[in-house]
What we know:
The protein has 264 residues and is mostly helical. The protein is 47% helix and 6% strand.
Amino acid sequence: MKSAKPVAVAVGVGVGVGVGALLIAAVVTWTTRGLPNAKQSHAAGSSSEQPVSLGSDRAPVARAPIASRSSGSASSASPRIGDALSGAKTEADVAWLVRNGYPSTEAARDALLRRGARGPLEQAELLDPTAILDAEQLAVLDSSRRTEAMEFLAASAQSGSIYALETIARIHEEGINGISDPVRASAYRKAAELRGSWPAGLVNGRSKLTPQQEMYATLMAHQVIANIEVDRQKNGLPPLGIDSRPGLNDLISEIGKSGAPASR
């Protein structure tokens, strides 16, 4: 495995009320790239001259997706109320995070220490936050297992994990082999938003893509979701549909009280 530097990455948005806390991203030290020239590659990847192939986003699937997880399937790696990484504030919020494969702060820190040191990623772990975290580490740190990790994350997203979509977005954003793909990163964040993670949409709002790149990313996001549903149908699983994270009504209400921008 190659060495990597810890990088602070915003990975979640709290949903509680209070103007000062409305759009605060939960930040953890996340191990991502340790490869040379990553920043230069990221800048080059942001250029509007970079074409995007819409047909390239059907990720290979090494394992068939499994049935979606229930809210009662929490593990020791799942977040609880007050978790800093996820910003969980209510039982309904926690249930949503559990259903969609999100980890706790402690689980994320443990994954940083493991650095992907583990055995094969198994089908039974597709909705396990610990395995999703390990797959991210393997994708960015271990070239010999990168394909295995990315295929696992694709199957995890097909099984219903919105967090897997956000994880794929982070991997493309930070870069593999020193080459980042901000358009594809935005596409997977948009796909997570389409599935119901409105905090992913708030993060995407800070994108520096050109209008053309934003258009490509939007089209790719819809393609990702469509392909997920096709693969689920092939495996005899029902459509995933939209599973919106709780707290949106409170957030919009609080923004309105603090003076929302006027519509035109």
